[in-house]
Amino acid sequence: MAWTSILGIALLLWVAYDLYAGSVWLHREFYRAQEPTAYWLLILLWTAVAVSCFYWQV
User: Fold this and answer.
1) Rounded to 5 degrees, what are φ and ψ at 30?
2) Would the pTM of this model clear 0.90, i.e. be above it?
3) Angle formed at CA 39 by CA 8 and CA 20, multiple of 5 degrees
4) Radius of gyration of the chain from Cα atoms?
5) What is the pLDDT of residues 8-21, one digit of tens each?
6) How many domains does the chain have?
7) In sequence order, which residues have a C-beta less than 8 Å from that of residue 1 and are 6 or more positions away?
């Protein structure tokens, strides 16, 4: 298993935790209850980064 796949799995687990916790990080913490649009956009961003790890094999 390539290290990028391991990174992708770790990032997907992190996204799953962020969905459970209701907050996500970029340069600061965004809360689902306070900033729902930014929260969901960042969840999509981190999910895209995680999935891209499976396509970027070194």
Assistant:
1) -110, 130
2) no
3) 65
4) 12
5) 999 999 999 999 99
6) 1
7) none
